[in-house]
Every structure is written in C-alpha cells, then in structure tokens.
Protein 1
Amino acid sequence: MSTFKAPKGTYDLLPPDSAKFLAVREAIAAPLRNSGYGYIETPGFENVELFSRGVGESTDIVTKEMYVFETKGGDRLALRPETTAPVLRAVLEANLHKAGNLPVKVWYSGSQYRYERPQKGRYRHFSQVGAEAIGAEDPALDAELIILADQSYRALGLRNFRILLNSLGDQECRPVYRTALQDFLRGLDLDEETLRRAEINPLRVLDDKRPEVQKQLTGAPLLRDYLCDACKAYHEEVRDLITAAGVVFEDDAKLVRGLDYYTRTTFEFVHDGLGSQSAVGGGGRYDGLSEMIGGPSLPSVGWALGVDRTVLALEAEGIELDIPSATSVFAVPLGEEARRILFAKVTELRKNGVAADFSYGGKGLKAAMKAANRSGARYALVLGERDLADGVVQLKDMESGEQTAIGVNEIVAELESRLG
Ligand code: HAM
C-alpha cells in the first residue's frame, strides 16, 4: 500500500465491480441514443459565475458545496457540481440553437463534484448520466424524458423506485405563491437560519427534513393551488402523456429541487432501498436558465441520473447484471518459442474481433491455468513443447473441460466458428 488514499468522500472504481458501472451508464445512455439525443462533453470545470448565476446564489450547491479555485492566470473556476448549466453554456457558445432544428437534444456522462458531508450514497465525486432537450416548450418533451428514464431503470431490472412529479409554475404564478408562502412561514416558530432562508428562497424551506419543521408545514400553501392556467394545462398534458405511456408516478406537491433554475415540470426518481440518500435521479424544466446566463429565451427540460446510487439500488434489490466475460480466449504458452507463436496468434485473434488475453510473466502451467480461469475465458489455448513439435495447440473448453488438439494454423478460424 502506498501512503496515499483516495480523498475523503471519494472511492475508486475497480475491476471487476467497475463493469457494473459501465453497464449502468450504457443502460441509461442506450434509450437516449435511440431517441435522437447526441453525445456532448464539456470540461470538468467552468467559470464559477456560470454556476452562481445558473444554479443559484442561495443554493447549498453554490454556497457550501462548490470546489472553487483560482488559476495561476487569475481565473475563478469551479469543478462542476452539475452539468445542465455547462451544457447550455456550450450549446449557446456554439450557436447550436441557431441551426434551426430545435430542440437541441444532447446527453452526457461524467464526473460531478460537490463538497458534501460524505455518507453512503453521498460522495464528493460522483457520476451522472444526463440528458437535456434545449429550446422547445412542449409537454411531449417533458414526457419523453420521464419515459426514457423509467425505461432505463426498468431495463436494468429495477422495480422499487417511484417517480415524484410536481410543477413549480412560471414567472407568472410563482411570485404570487412565493409571497403567500413567505407570509405563512413568517408566522412559524423557526430558527434564525431557516427564517433567513424563508426570505431568500422560501420554497427550499418546504424541503427541510427536520420533523419539527415538517410538522409546522402542514397547512402551508401549495404551489399546486396557485398555478396559472397555462402552467396548469401544461402540467395536465405532461401527466396525461406519461400516464398513456404506462408510466406510474406520484404527485408530490412539496417536491422542490436543490437547484434554482427549475420552472414548471419537476420530478425525482427515488428508490426505497437506499435510506436517506434515496434520490437516484432528478430533473425538470428550466425555461429561464438561458436568460439567466446571458442567452436568449430557450425553454428547456432535462434530467440527470446518479450512476453511483443506481448501482446501490441494484445491490439493494439484489439484481445481478448479466455482464458477459470480457475475455473469450486465454493463451498459455509453455516455453520461449511457444510464447512467440501464441503471442502472434493472440494479436491476430484480437484483430479479428475475438477478445483474447495472454499469460504474461513466464508462468508455469498451473499458475497460468489459474489465470485462464480467473479471466472468465470460455477457451484456453495451451502450447507446450510436444505440441510445438507436432504443429498443434491444445484447445481447452473451460466449461466442459474437454480438450482437443488443433493445428496452429487453424486457431483463428476454429475459435471464430466456435464463438459464433
Ligand atoms: P441533482 O438532483 O442535483 O440534479 O442530481 C441528480 C442525481 O445525481 C441525484 O438524483 C443523485 O442520484 C446524484 N447525486 C447528486 N449528488 C450526489 C452525491 N453527492 N453523491 C452521489 N450522487 C449524487 C442535477 O444535477 C441536475 N443538473 C439535473 C438536471 C438535468 N435537471 C435538468 N437537467
């Protein structure tokens, strides 16, 4: 062991478990690729202002959780705590929204950084797969995203998750509600900090997890009752469309998200086997974000699913993903000449698309066969002194234990046909 450890709140993805993470990323990405979303990748850090303006000056993410640093050149940057604002920044910068085919639909996969108090399911470095549909106001787009996330989770075999749905209104109706909520909150018995929050960001108080606060919140005015006609109609249609798709959801009038850019549709995917960090994914509409970061009006919607928590959810449900073995053929040379010949064959197999690995380090037969076993390969190729003299190699079926001698020149064709 070296003297260094992974920083607090982080962990390493190591084989063989890392294969699960790749499979989860792939399962989330596949339905997106299949639905017109193109891949986008943005830097791991951005100008700090992008997040303070975009995610919100008063959010926990910006005030407490951002990794902010100054470069040698004097730029103030932040490791990205989320990727919606960066994606919108990139789309605006490249003028993708002017190419004439809105919405711009993109998906991404990558690391996020938040200086949070670490616990199971809550890390300082974590991974999301996300999707953003930029520049269209259409309930079908909101519905599409919710349906696709549901499809990803179902494809992974997850069942014990729920979809919480709410509408946060728009610039018409939310201010009216905000005032009503503030009036209500001012009458409660709350501590200094919470009262301060009620003045800056009253909706966040609804999200307070403490029972003594929650108790006082029964009877709080609900945004649902303040939605303007346009927001109400929009929300109804989103609900109708996902219902028609057979996706089950729960209305959650108190669902507020931890980021300030949301308008109208908001949702969260929660898993019941994860304890307090139960949100496996979340998202919603952010019709005002583009203007908040200096762009034109571009109503948009998106989500991000947490890869780490999705893996934990799989474990909670006892789901073993069917991950095929990475290696199909494992070559075991015994002696110098055999080593040269088999190494060339392994290279040739790989060129032909057969997943092959090799016993390195001059191991003896026993240790090499152990390595072959561990690799999960279906076949082992063993080349010894006597085989060399006969121009053959022993092909061992690792499942049945059956062994046959085949000509060295037949290796590639034989394995291709056996592996289909
Ligand atoms: P978020 O709700 O902050 O939304 O994060 C989405 C998901 O990332 C969470 O549901 C959770 O699974 C995962 N996550 C968040 N923080 C942590 C953590 N500390 N450790 C492990 N996993 C975590 C967003 O980030 C928005 N950008 C989503 C979005 C996209 N909205 C519109 N478009």
Protein 2
Amino acid sequence: MSAVVVVGAQWGDEGKGKVVDLYAPFAELVVRYAGGANAGHTLVVKGEKLILHLIPSGILHQKTNCVVGQGTVIDPAVFLKEIEALTERGVATEGRLLVSQRAHVVLPHHKLIDGLRETKSNEAIGTTKRGIGPCYEDKVARRGVRMGDLLDAARLRSKLEANLECWRPVAEDLGGTLPSADEVTAQYVDLGKALRSYIGDAAAVVRASIQRDQRVLLEGAQGTMLDIDNGTYPFVTSSNAVAGGACAGAGIGPTHIRLAVGIAKAYTTRVGGGPFPTELEDETGQRLRDAGAEYGSTTGRPRRCGWLDLVALRHAVAVNGLSEIAVTKLDVLTAVDEIKICVAYDLDGERLDYPPYDRLEAVQPIYETLEGWDEDLSDCRSRGDLPAAAQEYLTRIEQEVGCRVGVVSVGPDREDTADLRDPFER
Ligand code: IMP
C-alpha cells in the first residue's frame, strides 16, 4: 500500500497545492485524478509566477514523475501552454509527464456553452467557465471525445460531428454559434500532434509504479463540498473530487491507498454561488479576504470568506475516510481577537452535526467562541511552538471532527510549515 491521497476538505482553494508541493519530494509519482483547468495552483519558479491548472506541481521536483489521470477533463491547449511555460523556465517534461488517453477533451463549444449558461440562462451557479460541466456531461452521455482520439484525425472528425450536432440546439437556444467540425478537427489534430508523446496509458503507469512499491501521491482538485455526490448539489463541480474518486480517476483499486489527508483552511472560503452557512459579509470577512489574499487563481474572483465550519469538515472526514487533516493558513487568524468555530447547525430548531442533503441555505450556524492570539506564527515548526490559543484551536478541531491534525501551514512559503513528515512513512 504505497499511495497517499490529498483531498480538499472544504469548498476548494484549501492550499492543496502547497501540501502536494511539500509531499512531492517524498513521492516517485504524482497523479492528478479529477477536474480540469477549473483548478489553479500558483507557483513561483526561479522568481517568476506560474499558474498551473492541469499539470501537477510535482513536475517541479526533477525526480518526481507526473500523471494526469483518466478522471480529469483536459483542455489540450491549456496543457500544451503549461508544458511550454515549464520548458521556458528550464523544467523538462518529456518522459516525466503523461496524460491518460482515456481523459475526456474539453472542446471549444464546452467553454462556449458553459459561458452562455452563466450569462444568459437561469442555470448560472458561478462556474469557472472552463467548459468543465458540458465536458463531463458528454462523458456521462457516452458521446465524449477522449485524448486518445486526438491522435486519429478521421475518428476525431466523426466523433466531433456527432457531438456538435447534440449541442447545436442548446447553443442556438442560448444565442450562440458553434464552430464547424472542420475547424475544430484541424485545431485539435494539431494539438494532438504537439502532445503525441505525452498521451498514453496513464493508469498502467500508475499501477506499474504501485507494483514496484513506489510512493504515489494522488492529488485531488476542488474540494469535498464541491463533489458531485457529496457536495452542496447543484452548486458543485461535475466530478468526484473526494478521495474515493482517486481510484476510478487514476485507475487503481482502493486497497492500494494507505492514507487520505484532507486539507482544510483554518477558516472557510467559497467561490461561485451556493449556500455557505458561516459566511461573513462584514468587516471580519473582508479582513480574512485581505489577510489571506483570497482571490481566485483561475478566475481572479474575490472568494467569499467565513468562520471555520466544523460541520462541513466533519462531513469531509466521514466521506473521505480521512486519516488526518492538514490545516493551512493558520497565520491568517493571527490578531483576530475572538475566533468563532461552527460546531453544529440549527435547522428549524433541530441541532444537526452533519450537513442536511438539502436546505443548507436555511441552517443557522451554532458557534463556539475561542480566544485569539497575537504572536507571529511564521517561525513555528511544530505544534508545541504555537501560542497556547492556537494550539487550543487545533485541539478543538480534532475533538469536534474526530480526526487528528498533522501538518500545519503558518505562512505561504514552503518553510512556513509545522510538523511536516513524510506521509509515506507512517
Ligand atoms: P466548474 O467546476 O467550473 O463547473 O464550477 C462549479 C463550481 O465549482 C463553481 O462554484 C466554482 O466556483 C467551483 N470551483 C471549481 N473549481 C474550483 C477550484 O479549483 N476552487 C474553488 N472552487 C472551484
């Protein structure tokens, strides 16, 4: 059992990128298993900012290979651009990066429809407009185009023709015009040629790696509360972001996973629409947004901010079978006098310990107030170095959700981390 899953335990943007970056040097292989270019991870390479949406950040560690699994949806132009940006910065990808031939392709009309729905229909949920929903719709409807299809022009053309026909009435209804099959075929055949050496049997590579007893890090995207089955439906993304999604998305069995680490911010954020019980639409919310630089790395949208929701986190512990939680951005709470944590919800007078399947917008958070701290946390390297109030904050999290806290991030840099351990050595 050599695989470890890293999964978002809230509504995405929990700081998975930083934790994956910290764990990647311990791994031989990093595998992205769900989502697409809706995710965004900001990296600094040789002093220059680089945002990766599809390629795992493990690519920066020369000894780590990267796989983008069959559970993802790929915008090939974005993928190619990321390869080029890495090459420009001296990071070699050839022979170290593979995308699954089974991963579905995000097509131009997926992005068009996603955007039109957001602006012109009453179906808007605040998506990233990256074509994620329509692409997964095609996958489930069994009419999608897969990465392997980009390598066969005739096959691609016939699939595209059929696919475009299905979307034509939808696009027309929304006032949009679809590109022709010829145009898309020409563009995507070229992308296929450019990416040929990167497309292959990714799942076989992951399994072979596991068989050789290599350490495999499975990297989730988005978060538990955005998961299509376990999240705040319909305000969710269209894939299984949870740890369980790692098996289907990477092509391995559950018996290979030894540990699931959930990443949770010390407070809560959400981008896009949908219920958010602990949201703070006041000065404190703005303070968290400013201190935590809470603006989307894919869309630049300001993130909605609020207190830590332990009901949502308890749910994440349960549905992911979390072995431990990594708490990020604890430093952002420094100098907040009194910190609130939501320990339960009140729904029409009934106390709930877990989110209801529906009517989340109607719950009232039940808060407990904890003492804050003023000390700078950036030099803390273990839990014992933290001020007593910050230690108490972590202890209350553990008590409420029934899962231990491992890594604690106390600042944006790699070094600003307490209790980092090799996740494969437990
Ligand atoms: P989609 O994934 O673009 O279809 O968007 C569906 C919902 O998921 C919207 O509320 C988005 O804001 C949210 N979402 C998608 N990807 C991310 C992410 O990486 N971080 C945070 N929210 C996301």
Protein 3
Amino acid sequence: MKRQTILITGASHGIGKAIALRFAKEGFSLVLNCKTDITLLENFANELQQTYGVRAVAVAGDVSDHTFVCSLFEKAATLFGGVDVLVNNAGISHIGLLTDLSIEEWNHIIATNLTSVFSCCHEAIPYMVHQKSGCIINISSVWGNVGASCEVAYSASKGGVNSFTKALAKELAPSSIPVNAIACGVIDTRMNGCFDAEERRALEDEIPMGRYGTPEEVADLAWQLATAPTYLTGQILTIDGGWQ
Ligand code: NAP
C-alpha cells in the first residue's frame, strides 16, 4: 500500500514542526517547507528519517510566491506521487497600529498568511480529487474569529482563512475531501517571543487554563482532524484553553 504523504508549510519551527513530528510517528512521508533556514529544516528532515524510518524532504522557499508553490507541489508529485494531507501552517504576525502599517507590510501579511493558502490548495486539489481522498487543514487564529486591536492585518488574513475554509469545504464535499481550520489561541512558539516575562504572566492570567498551549497539543488536534470522519468538514476548531 502507498504510504500517505503530508505537506506542511512552515515546518522548521513551532506548530508546523510539531505537526511534522506527529505525522512522522504515524509513518507518513513528509514534504517540509520553510522560508529561510534550509540547513535547520534539512537536519530536522534527516532526524525524522533516522528516528522513524520515514521519507522526508526539505524544500526552502516563500509560500507567498505562487511560482514557488507550483514547484513545491511538482517536487512532491515527483517524489511521492502527490499530497494526501495538506497543512497550511506558514504564517507571520505583525503588531502595531493600522495607521502605522505600510501598504507593503499589509500586502506581505496577506500574501504570506492568506494567498499562500490559495496557492497551496490550488496545487493540491487536482490530485486529491483524482484520488477521491485527501484532507486540508489550515492553521488559523482566534483573532480570525474575533479580531485583535493592533493586529488588524493579521486578524483580516486569518478571518480570510476561516471563510476560505468554510467555502472550500462546501466545494470539495462532493469529493469527500474535508477542509477544516484550527484557530489557535496563544501557543508557546517563537511567534510569541516578543512578550517579556511580565507580559507573558499577564497573558497567562487572562487564559482560563492559566497557561499557553503547546505546539504538541495543536499537532494532536491536527492528527485527530486528519483521521476524523470526512463528514467533519468546514469547521473552525478553536484551541485556546477557554480564552476567547
Ligand atoms: P513560528 O514558530 O514563527 O513558525 C513559523 C513557520 O512559518 C516557520 O517555519 C517559518 O519559516 C515559516 N514561514 C513564515 N513565513 C513563511 C513563508 N513566507 N514561506 C514559507 N514559510 C514561512 O510560528 P508558529 O507560532 O509556529 O505559527 C504557525 C502558524 O500558527 C501561523 O500560521 C500562525 O499564524 C499560527 N498561529 C500561531 C499562534 C501562536 O500563538 N503561536 C496563534 C495563532 C495562530 P522561516 O523561519 O524560514 O521563515
């Protein structure tokens, strides 16, 4: 039987890395992407291959660049036949007043967090429809549900991901391909490294669970989504310790 293949964008750090580890433990072949540090990603891919006996390939490139995304999926097709599970995880945050945001920064955030999801789905879907199976998971944010002051562009990009998820789920339901999103609260990754110890404590006090979530908890949810009945589709699953 063909091994299942997962493609994860932004897999060199944080949530994407934890998802890669979770699916490697389950025997998946992995196509791992990040934007900058190819050495880091290659070392991680090698570690997964050696520890779990899986095939893993590291591909550096910017997922906001549609041409790069096309080449990423061509590589996945050549190596593994196609992608069975797509995790759109790569993302960036930006904190600041909207009036201080330049048009270039706005375009960069939207292209990285939202247009990349279009590009990856656009390239992943034909194989999935042909196979009559597959699964798409988008990593979103609670700010996509409720909006955050000083994170307007980020909130808009994740709100876009949530609507994209619901719409695409309807489009792909006749092909039995579930499309869901995970809306994360505060997860303990590099993305929140901007907060000092005092700010972190204040944030933890706001969260009913009293702590940040871990990337491993998000990865467990991604695994559960990938193995859930296909009838579960078009959902935005919030994982935030009861925060929002
Ligand atoms: P992270 O630790 O900063 O990791 C982000 C990953 O995305 C890195 O591997 C990074 O690679 C990659 N990436 C960024 N821009 C890219 C691009 N243009 N092309 C390809 N890869 C790119 O962040 P994280 O916290 O794990 O975040 C992962 C996802 O969860 C994001 O979509 C984020 O919005 C979402 N999320 C996180 C939180 C949280 O509290 N951490 C909350 C809600 C939602 P390079 O380092 O090479 O750029």
